[in-house]
Amino acid sequence: MLYIVSTPIGNLEDITYRAVRVLSEVDVLAAEDTRRTAKILNHYKIREQNPSLRTISYNDHNKEGRTKQIISLLLDNKTVALTSDAGTPGINDPCFYLVREALKNNITVSPIPGPTSPISALVSSGLPTDRFTYYGFLPKKSKARQDLLSSITTGTSIFLESPHRIIKALKALSETLPDSTICIAREMTKVHEEFIMGIASEIYERYKSKVLRGEIVLLVSPKCKK
């Protein structure tokens, strides 16, 4: 059995009882970042409940070799849990690569639902939720970024963005979709959680000389009225 285990995006209390139980029972934990996952294991004393738990890394850099290793373990009747840096695996990480191979080998894959930052940001933004598109990170190159934003005509678009690039993203929005309604969801579930909402051009003018820190989700709705 391969378990896809969702973990908190910030606040460690945002984990399900089932996720803790599964982590306390599996043979192997494949973590995108073993150091970040170790905080959860320590906080919930999972190693005390599961002293034989084996932890290995699974990320974009080692996914090919690790996938073969994990599939071998699963075919040997071991149970494996997969976690990402934060939230639900499969969003901007190589989860799909492992799941695809597991299914090819007739291995059962079971999701353990939990937090995911794009959906948490969406439902807290006040923007339309009936139709939305998730894009991941905006392109780094300005031309590609402008082209993508210019193509948005309907629904709510969801992007991840880093603190050192968010102002560039806001500038691009102020140029391509100046009248769109946007939401910057920053540091969700953490002490400095903040939702910045308004018209793209106005938000850019307000924050163009400021620094926005932390994990950021950017939402854009070109047709949403004030």
Give an overview in words:
Helices cover 36% and strands 22% of the residues. It is of the alpha/beta class and 226 residues long. The chain folds into two domains: 2-112, 3-Layer(aba) Sandwich (Cobalt-precorrin-4 Transmethylase, domain 1); 117-221, Tetrapyrrole methylase, C-terminal domain (Methyltransferase, Cobalt-precorrin-4 Transmethylase, Domain 2, 2-Layer Sandwich). Strands 3-2-4-1-5 form a five-stranded parallel beta sheet, with helices on both faces. Strands 6-7-10-8-9 form a five-stranded mixed beta sheet. Helix 4 runs parallel beside helix 5 (95-104). The chain is elongated and about 55 Å long. It starts with a strand and ends in a 5-residue tail after the last strand.
- The low-pLDDT segments are none
* CATH class membership of the largest domain: Alpha Beta
**Oligomeric assembly:** single chain
CATH architecture of the largest domain: 3-Layer(aba) Sandwich
**What name does CATH use for the topology of the largest domain?**
Cobalt-precorrin-4 Transmethylase, domain 1
What is the mean predicted local confidence, pLDDT? Answer: 95
Q: C-alpha Rg, in Å? A: 19 Å
Count of folded domains: 2
